Amino acid sequence: MPVPAKPSASGSLQAFKAEFFKALAHPVRIRILEVLVAGERSVQELQEALGLEQPVVSQQLAMLRAKSIVRARKVGTTVRYTVRDASIRELLAIARRIFDSQLIDSQTMLRELRREGRRR
């Protein structure tokens, strides 16, 4: 019977990276981060900015905290959240540029498809 291969260090690193991106893979979490890169916010401020209910915001913040993407700071009776690493702003900006490029490519293909349909 073959011996199972030990997980490699690079495999563990890849799993770590995948878990980080999984933590970002939710529309509400992305929206929360887009607000938090502008500055620290409370759950109530996030609710107002996003137009979402408190349990939804709290649940998504818990996931981001568990993955060390945001940090919480208690101020009196209020908990304030911020991104742990300012590079999140850069990551979101880079992602936006990639999405813009993909959408431009999609629009170009759609125009070509429409032109092709008119020729027939």
List the helices and strands and how they pair.
Layout: H1 9-24, H2 27-36, E1 41-42, H3 43-50, H4 54-66, E2 70-75, E3 78-83, H5 87-119
Antiparallel strand pairs: 1-3, 2-3
Notes on the protein architecture:
The protein is built from five helices and three strands; from the N terminus they run H-H-E-H-H-E-E-H. It has a three-stranded antiparallel sheet. It has two domains: 9-84, Orthogonal Bundle (Arc Repressor Mutant, subunit A), CATH 1.10.10; 86-120. Strand 2 (70-75) and strand 3 form a beta hairpin. The chain has 120 residues and is mainly alpha-helical. The longest helix has 33 residues, at 87-119. The protein has helices spanning 9-24, 27-36, 43-50, 54-66, 87-119; strands spanning 41-42, 70-75, 78-83. It starts with 8 loop residues before the first helix and ends with a helix.
Order of helices and strands: HHEHHEEH
> What is the gyration radius calculated from CA atoms?
20 Å
Shape: extended
Share of helix, binned: 55-70%
Q: Give me the CATH superfamily of the largest domain.
A: Winged helix-like DNA-binding domain superfamily/Winged helix DNA-binding domain
Number of DSSP strands?
A: 3
Gap from first CA to last CA: 62 Å
Biggest pleated-sheet summary: 3 strands, antiparallel
Domain count, please report it: 2
CATH architecture of the largest domain: Orthogonal Bundle
Strand order of the largest sheet: 1-3-2
Q: What is the CATH first-level class name of the largest domain?
A: Mainly Alpha
Would you tell me the structural class of the helices and strands? mainly alpha
Examine the coordinates and then state which fold CATH places here, giving the name of the CATH topology of the largest domain. Answer: Arc Repressor Mutant, subunit A
Q: What is the percentage of strand-forming residues?
A: 5-15%
Q: Please tally the helical runs, counting DSSP H or I stretches of 4 or more residues.
A: 5
